[in-house]
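REQUEST ID: PR-0412
SUBMITTED BY: lab tech R.K.
PRIORITY: routine
TASK: structure prediction, single protein chain
INPUT:
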Amino acid sequence: MSPLWIALVSFANMFSVGTFYALSVLQVQLPRLVGTSDAWSFAPFGVVCLGLTVGVATCASMIAQRGADVTAASGTTLWGFAVIGAGFSLTRLRFEYMLLCFLFGGVGVGWTYLAVVVMVGQGFPHLPLARSAIGPIGFSSGAATCFYLSCALPLSAVDADRVGQALTLAGGAFVAVGGATQLLMPGSTNNGQCNSPKTSLSRSERFFSMLLFFNALPGMTVFGALAPLASIYADGKRGDDSMTLLLPYSMLALASGGVLAPTISAYLGARHAFVALLCLRGAFLVLLSQFEEESMLGLGAVVTILFAHGAGFSILPGLVKAQSTPPGLFLRSYGRVLVTWGVAGIVGCTLHTALSSSIGSISAASLVLGLLTSAFGILLHIMPSLGGEFLA
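STATUS: complete
OUTPUT:
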């Protein structure tokens, strides 16, 4: 299979499931559309993250049986049907059914993400830039498209039926992408030899799970409330509509992180790269907690968080693969590590829910995230023994 064709198919599938990063566009309208509380409006993103943990944990077995391309197609198709179901549920004002659909959709997101990592890794074995960039570019493009459409066609003037119809159309497009992938690439990708026996987490897997959790926590917390945060700063008291219009372009930071990840890792080394990415985000978040009214500081924090999110996710697969011996263990190891990606999203949504009704919730959430992220970054710096043999 041509590497260019693998790149296009991988991008299309990542684009489709990457739209889950833009779910905040929907959730900011849920109190108006279905009468949910502000706290419950974070639930769709949270249940997708819950499904995501199941998807990445079971993906290795799927790939072993069906191949990476078929698994990616199945995941994208499942996500598409989930979005269609969510659209029908919204038109009938059945919030609980919408959550159930998104739960299954999260499983599909997990399948597609890990399967595409395998496809790109096998399609571009000697091109680290391609391996690290395709995923973040696909994810960011899908999310940016949703944010752009939400700016061009303001949802605040649309009723539940119209929003539900839009979700149904989008879901149909994702199903088409998944179906086309399965038809055009039937079992053509090696399954990655992941038929390894199940064992408990190894030392490297425990460390990388912890590293991925702290790398993902700020980004997943931001993604869980990106549109509501923009709408707050777009209020006449704090900024203007330009904050909302900047949302699609902020996704460039996520893509840039993936593109520049090999350079950052090569220049600083893996350990110092993660220390810098963690501490930089922590510093911005702590500053934001003290100067909540500063819209430009908020924008700088979001851009930094998204850039570091993409960079960290692009550096980690290579580190996990280096510790996977024999190489066939990579799939199962990375799938276990990725579980904390979904856990980070659940924790972020829980934090939003807990603080949504409190005064100064942005300050409180920023301070908690900033201190946690900075503390782990500092710990990683002053304790070389922490993951020392894994970040060499």
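NOTES: Confidence is low (pLDDT under 50) at residues 236-240.
REVIEWED BY: pending
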